[in-house]
Amino acid sequence: MLTDAERARYARSIPLLGEEGQEALRRGSVLVIGAGGVGSAALLYLAAAGVGTIAVADGDRVERSNLQRQILHTEDRLGENKALSAARAMAERNSEIRIRAIPEHVSRRTLPELARGYDFVIDAADGPAAKLMINDGCVAAGIPFCHCGTSGLRFQVMTCLPGRTPCVRCAFGSPAAGGPGSTLGPACGAAGSVAAAEAVKYLAGRGELLTGRLLMGDLAAMSFRTVPLARDPDCPTCGAAASRAP
Question: Is 0.85 topped by the overall pTM?
Answer without folding.
Answer: yes
